[in-house]
Specification:
single chain, mainly alpha, transmembrane helix, Peptide/nitrate transporter
Amino acid sequence: MVPMSILRLLPQYFFLGGLDGMAYESIERFFKDQEIPPSLKPYMIDSAIGVFGVGKIGNVLLSYVVDKITERENNLGWFAGTINSSRLDNYYWFLATLTAINFLWYIFVAIRYPPKNRENRSSWLSCCTGKKLLTPCLF
């Protein structure tokens, strides 16, 4: 066992913080780009925040369940009292697998629910890249 400092986990928290900010904007855009009745438009931002809240509660429950299951298999579990006796590598592999499944789900949803204004999206992309797009972009 190699002694490890808690500071080695610090870069991931900066990375996750940045991704969290981008995710809020992305889900807000997703909800705004969908064809919904005008009476429901004011509630879309609140719905986005609610989705993130449910996700955070699910994250806490997932950590608890993983800890209880792995404690039964071996007495220490993946989350032990110290970082040196924990098996965080197994937990991160588990999270990487869930992230891959989530990415596949994202691709399915992105294909299933395209933006309603492809023309505006295409002109926005041509403005950002400085190139004239001949065909509308899928994203």
